[in-house]
Amino acid sequence: MPLTATRRVTLGLTLLAAVCLLFGDFEISTHDPWHALGRLFMGLIQPDFSRVDFLGEALLRTVAFAFVGVGLGSAAGMLLALLFRHVWVRTFCAFIRAIHELFWALIFLQSFGLHPITGVLAIAIPYAGTFAKVYAEILDECDPQPERSLPQRAGRLSALVYTRISQAWPHLVSYTAYRLECGLRSSAVIGFVGMPTLGFHLAGAFAQGHYGTVGALLLLFYALIASLRLWARPRLLPLYLVASPFLLGTGLPIVWSNVSRFFTEDIVPAPLRNGEGLEGLWPWFGDLLLGQALPGIWNTLLLTQIALVLTGVLAMTLFPVISRHFTGRLGGTAGHVLLVVMRSTPEYLLAFILLQLWGPSMLPAVVALALHNGGIIGHLVGRRSNEIPLRQDAPGGINRYAYEVAPRVYGPFLALLFYRWEIIMRETAILGILGIATLGFYVDSAIQELRFDRAMVLILITALLNIAVDVLARRLRAHLRLSHTARSEPAAA
Q: What are the transmembrane regions (predicted)?
C-alpha cells in the first residue's frame, strides 16, 4: 500500500481528535491539585507498611482472583478455540469479550451479591472470549504437514494433541502467562465494585486520606507485577491453581431466589414485564436511547478518539527510551522501569487516582488511557526497533529518529494502535463508573436506581459499539496491509 494511504489515515485520525477536543471537558476543578499530588508523591516515597496483615490480605486476594479467573478463562477459551471456525462461536466470543470485566462484575453483583463467584466470573467470561480468539489464531498458524502424516486410524484428539498443540505449546504458554499479568490488573480493578482485592482497599485509603497506605498498596502492586516471572514459575503453577480457590474468601451467602428473579424478571424490559407489550416497549426504548444511550455513545466516542491519538503520540515519543539506537544500558534500564510502571497501572486505577487529584472531567480519563496504552505500545515498538540494523554511517540524534528508525517501525506501530483501539473503547466506557459521562456512567446510574433492564440494554449497546470499532480497526489494518499476527498480539492485549 502506498505511503500516502498511511498518511491519509494518520492525518484523518489526528484531525478528528483535534475536532473532538473542541467538545471535551478538560477542566481541573480541585482547589489545590498540586498539594494533593504532593501528598500522593510523599505517600509513594514514604509508604506506610505498618499494617502488614491488611496489605498482605489485599495482595493475596488479588492474586487468588486472578489465578482462578484466568485459569477458568483459559480452559473455556481452549474449548471455544477448537470450535472457532463456526460463525456462532466467533460471534459469541466477540460479544463476551466486548463487555468489560467491571460490567460483568456489576451484573453478577445484582444476582450473586458480594460472593467470590462474582469476581471470578467477571474475569473468566471476557477472558474466555479473548483466549478463544488468540488460541484459535495460534493453532491456525501451525504447520499442517505433521497432521497429514499421521495414520488414518489416529483419532481427532490424538491428532490435535500431538500435532497442532505440541507445535503451538510455547506460544500458548507465552500468551497465557501474559494474560495472567492482565488478570492481576483486572483482579485489582474489580475491587472498586466491592470485591476484597487491592482496588477495594485503595479506594478506602484514598477516601480516608491515608496516602501512606495508598503508596504502600501501589508499590506492592508494582512489585507483584515486576516479580511475576520470579514467583509464577511453571512448576509452581499447579500449586497456585489448587490453592487459589481456598484463598478467595467466603463473602456473603448466595440467595438463589435473587439470582432467579434477576435473570427472569429484573432484566426484562419494564413494558414487557408489566404486560404493555410492544406498544409500550418502543416509547420506553426511545426514551432510553435519546436520554442516555446517545449522549453516552457520543462522549465514549469523543473520549476514545482523543485518547487513541494521544496514545500514539506518547508511544512514538517514548519508544526511544528503550531502543539501543538511542540509549545506553543505564538509560535503557531507566526507560524500561518507566514503561513498566505505565503499562502495569490499570487505566481504571490511574483514572481513579487522577480524579482525586484533578476533579471530575474528561482529563483524568484521557491521561490515564494514554499513559497505560502508550506504555504498552511504546514498549513493543521499542523492542521492534532493537531488531532493526542500521548502516555504519547512519546519522544520530533527531535525524536518526526521523529518517532511519521511525519510518521503519511506523507500520507495526499503527497495527498495534489499531489493535488497542477496541480495548481503549472498552476502558473508556467503563470509566463512566467514576463519574465521567460515558456509557458506563449511565449503566452505573441505572443500577443504582435498580433499573436493571435499562442497565442491560446499555451494556448491550456498549458491546455492539466495541465490536463495531474492532471491525473498523481490522479493516483499516487490512486496507493498509499491516501485518499483525496472533504471536505479536499477546504482548499487546
A: 58-82, 102-125, 205-225, 237-256, 297-322, 423-443, 455-473
